[in-house]
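Protein modeling request. Please complete all fields; requests missing the sequence field cannot be processed.
Requester role: graduate student
Desired output: 3D structure, token encoding
Chains: 1
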Amino acid sequence: MDDVTSPVERGSRGIQSIEVGGQLLLALAHHGRPMALKDLAREAGMAPAKAHPYLVSFGKLGLIEQEAGSGRYGLGPLALQLGLISLQQFDPVRLATPLIEELALSTGHTMSIAVWGNRGPTIVRVAEAPSPVHVAMRHGTVMSLRGTASGWLFAAYRAREEVQAVLAQELALGGFNGAPLDGAAFEAQLAEVRRQGMARVVDQAIPGVSALAAPVFDGSGALLLSITGIGPSATFDTAWDGALAGAIRRCAASLSRRLGAA
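Delivered output (262 residues):
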């Protein structure tokens, strides 16, 4: 799945000079630090002499500013203001909903969005698979930390005290009746999730059902929600490098970038 685009961005003719100059802003945003003119121009794929007039205009607008001592260029106050306003306008769940609907259609598996609630990871959106054989999910379902892909994902990326509190509730209620995990095994599983940047379960909470979940982060690196695919194990590709895992990863990464994540 490509980066999130609006209807205006798809199939409309733009102004080439703005798009060319915008490469300078993209380079500054990508590096996250002030850059010298020659380095900035190189990253944007243009000569310094061509880049300079764009920087002068961007500076007048407040999109960039030049350091007095070093002469390096960085993002300016208007860029910061626009970023803050943009973040305030974004509703992560609203942005993610059409993406999981596209994923369900393209992959043939049920997709869902989970957020962190007071009882743990909670399903807030579901896009049913178009195939006649699929795994149904319900809004409001609280996912087990140790028995679901969404649960493992939140356990790996949420604050430890939050995870321990929900895990204690889960154990007290007997929510997941699988094999008990000692501390070392639990931490090893969390480390695997972080290493892969994704969580998966195969025939764990429900025999014959598998799932993959990828994280969506905000600009501060905090986990906002999970994009989770679920389906019958017989037809659900759980390979870390499989096409399904790649599609879910790309969707989550694209949404993370839209929400300000590096």
